[in-house]
Amino acid sequence: MRRGGIRSFGAAWILAAATAVLGHGGIAQGQVVISDRAIGEPTDSLGDLPVPVESNGAVETEAETGQPALFDTDPTVFHAGSCGCDSCCKVQCKDPPGLFQVCRAASNARWTARLDALLLWRNAPRERPLFSNWDKNTETVGGTVMDAHDLDSTMGAGPRISLFRTDCHGHTTEFTYFQAFNFLAEEATVPSDEGYTIGPDGIYGNKWAELDTGTAQLTSGIKSFEVNGRKCVSRNISLLGGFRWVEWRESASILDMYRPADVFPARIDRDRYDTSTMNSLYGYQIGFDARMFDRGWLRLDAVMKGGAYYNIATQQSSYRNGPVGEPAGLIGRTYQDSGTAAFVGELGFMGTIPLTNHFEFTFGYLGLWLESIAQPTNQFGSQRIVPDEPARGKLDTTGGTVLQGVTLGFNAKW
């Protein structure tokens, strides 16, 4: 017998023996028996996995044989099959049945790293009059000249970093962190001699009149971290669920100036009202990720998720008064914290343009909705800090806000 024949016979005997050891030793219809050992095409008990074709001791690839290879020679290549969604559909890594082969195939897991720049805007707080017109002749309150709803913030920006791992069974694990800060809103009245008063709802119970100016400033920022698991349920849709932490903080400052009566020499005094709130939300979210469009050169995906959260909310308020140019004296301060239920929802769209086999350009839309949170302007009515009284109050968590904007970034895949 020629050397090539002996080698072929030996390889077949070893393959059949390995199959028997791994629990597939039965002889099925369509197999060829040589020396009581079965070789040939795999049986139904082995599934539809093809056997590599031997040629001169080397395992040939799909391109050489016309059949799918048992292993990809390039570990960065993944077969998406008929699924058009890399992020949610099963990646067919051709897992063989044996223990050692399965361990080897685990190295075929796909990783995707994503880095985005977030450009976000937040909506203004709910309506609450801050300053109104004052008629010093009739001593009556006129129309509202500044409302909390007028505090439209400038754009906030920050990074979003994500890491995705998809195994050979279509399960994806996601880690995402982002932050966006420097949301800033400022408003001021036109100077008017004793022309303003604090709005009818007051601030910390104060309703001073005969004010010359009024200004307001609002700053805010957000952080988020989430860990999600994703499971493909159809060709272009996957379900997701996981833990998420969100931190939303805001600070508001209200300042007015006036000339106190019967003070000589004349001077300008000021009132300063400061409130800061912090919301730390911990919860579980569920949602879905769907492939909306795929033409190779462009993919469009949509994601929607939301969940119930436990919100550890805090607020701190203070009222100071004193002449301009001198340190303001503290009238009073309050602090409260509480744990309440809250909601966080997210809606996103992302377009992906492949640049190379490993890099992609991404662009999209991000919208976030936070509900049942503490906000500074809502504390103005729930605190009482007035001269000659002990400061007291309660935490208000009836606020809500919406953030939305655009995302720009890159994906790196390996």
Structural features:
414 residues; mainly beta; ten-stranded antiparallel barrel; three-stranded antiparallel beta sheet; 4 helices; elongated
Structure notes:
The protein has 414 residues and is mainly beta. The chain is 8% helix and 54% strand. The protein has four helices and 19 strands. The protein has helices spanning 3-21, 62-65, 99-105, 376-379, and strands spanning 32-34, 37-39, 54-55, 58-59, 110-122, 129-135, 140-147, 156-166, 171-188, 196-198, 213-232, 237-258, 269-294, 299-323, 329-354, 359-373, 383-384, 392-393, 399-413. The strands form five sheets. A ten-stranded antiparallel barrel has the order 5-8-9-11-12-13-14-15-16-19. The longest helix has 19 residues, at 3-21. It starts with a helix and ends with a strand.
Write the layout of secondary structure elements.
Blueprint: H1 3-21, E1 32-34, E2 37-39, E3 54-55, E4 58-59, H2 62-65, H3 99-105, E5 110-122, E6 129-135, E7 140-147, E8 156-166, E9 171-188, E10 196-198, E11 213-232, E12 237-258, E13 269-294, E14 299-323, E15 329-354, E16 359-373, H4 376-379, E17 383-384, E18 392-393, E19 399-413
Antiparallel strand pairs: 1-2, 3-4, 5-8, 5-19, 6-7, 6-10, 8-9, 9-11, 11-12, 12-13, 13-14, 14-15, 15-16, 16-19, 17-18
